[in-house]
Structures are given as C-alpha cells and as structure tokens.
Amino acid sequence: MPTFDPARFDERYYRRFYRNPRTRAVSPAELRRSAELIAAFLRELGVPPRRILDLGCGLGLMRDRLLERFPRASYTGVDVSEYLCRRYGWTRASVHEYSNRRPFDLVICHDVLQYLDARDAALAIRNFGRLCRGVLHFSVLTREDWERHCDRKTTDGNAHLRPADWYRRRLAEDFVNAGSGMFVRRGAHIHLWELDRLEPRSTRRRA
C-alpha cells in the first residue's frame, strides 16, 4: 500500500501531473470548468460565499475563477507540499489536521484523499464537517474510477483505491449529497428541492 510522504509532492510531481500537457492528469481548463460548476451551484442556491477554503489546493487553479465570480470572498489555500507553499504562499498543513477558528462557506477538496490511508482519510472527512458551514465540493479517485473511467497512463495510481461507497457513507454523517461532487452541510440554512438530493429526506443518518 502507498505510504504518505509529503516530500513526494515536489516540483517534479506537479510538472508531470499538472504542467506538462503530454502527461498531466488534469488541465487548467478542466479545473476552471469545475470552478464554474461550483460557482453556478452556489448562485442557484443563493448563497454567495464570503470565506473559501481549498484543501490540497495544489497550483490553486480554481482560485482566480472563483474570486472572479465572488469578488467579495476571501480564499485560503492549504497544501501539504513544501514546494507549493513556498512558491505560492499557501498554508502548509494536511487536510486531516488543518484547523481554523472560523468555519468556511465553501470548502473544496479535489483529488486529495486517495493519498491518505483509511484512518487519515476518515479523519479528513470528519474535518470537513468542522470546517464547512455551507457547501463542500469533493472529488477523489475511487476504485471504480481506476477500473472503469480514468486514463491510467496519466492518472497517478500510486494511491489508496477505495470504493466510492466508502466515501459516501462517511460524508453522509455531516452532508447531504446534491450530486456532481456538491455536498450541503446538514443543518445549514440552504434549501434543496427534493430531487436535488441524492437521498430521500426521510433517510436516517448512517452510523
């Protein structure tokens, strides 16, 4: 099984998986589209964020687009990479350990938790519940994605490949799944129409 080592996320890692058009797993255009999806979802809900937290922000490729859409918002980028924090000024911390006295309206965690073992990944999901008071945008490489969907030539397979339901069960403790990677914090003053939810309103919270 992979061992988590922050030193792995150095300049060479980001050159391969993010900067080199021939080997990158995701392009800047794709992440800008993700930012547009997040912004459209928040505008539809009528809840423009004032505080945005990007956990495992990497190169921060969603930052500018989100701040264009929400110019009154502040953005906090957090990453475990010493290289990125030194270059871009992000806060250095792991997603399962980062804390803040004030919760955030929008929390983003894009393709990070597959690098953590089961214990730390579960702690990170619990941490989302503490840090987020509004909307969480979450994505992760799952076992199903590796087996059926992703390009294995460009995707980093040196990861913990857990089934998608492993994440769904844990996210359901604090969040309502609204689809497309969008999760609404339980108890938030945010209205979701019945068919916007991927669970019936009567479903009991899972243990």
Structural features, described:
The chain has one domain: 3-Layer(aba) Sandwich (Rossmann fold). Helix content is 33%, strand content 18%. The protein contains seven helices and seven strands. Strands 3-2-1-4-5-7-6 form a seven-stranded mixed sheet, with helices on both faces. It starts with 10 loop residues before the first helix and ends in a 22-residue tail after the last strand.
Task: Describe this structure in a few short sentences.
This protein is an alpha/beta fold and 207 residues long. It is 33% helix and 18% strand. It has helices at 11-19, 28-45, 63-69, 82-88, 118-131, 143-148, 164-171; strands spanning 51-55, 74-79, 91-92, 104-110, 132-139, 175-179, 182-185.
Protein traits:
alpha/beta; Rossmann fold; 7-stranded mixed beta sheet; 7 strands
Low-confidence stretches: none
Structural class: alpha/beta
Secondary-structure element order, as H and E? HHEHEHEEHEHHEE
Supply the number of helical segments: 7
Radius of gyration: 16 Å
Write the CATH homologous superfamily. Answer: Vaccinia Virus protein VP39
- Distance from first to last alpha carbon: 27 Å
What's the CATH topology name? Answer: Rossmann fold
Strand content: 15-25%
How many domain modules?
1
How are the secondary structure elements laid out?
Layout: H1 11-19, H2 28-45, E1 51-55, H3 63-69, E2 74-79, H4 82-88, E3 91-92, E4 104-110, H5 118-131, E5 132-139, H6 143-148, H7 164-171, E6 175-179, E7 182-185
